[in-house]
Amino acid sequence: MPEKKLDNCIFCKIVAGQIPSKVIYDDDDFIAFHDINPAAPIHFLIVPKKHISTLSDCDDSHAALLGKMMLLAPKLAQQQGCGYEVDGNGSGTGGFKALFNTGPDGGQEVYHLHLHVIGGPRPWRGRTIVAA
Ligand code: 5GP
Ligand code: ZN
Question: C-alpha angle 29/47/8, rounded to 5°?
Answer without folding.
Answer: 105
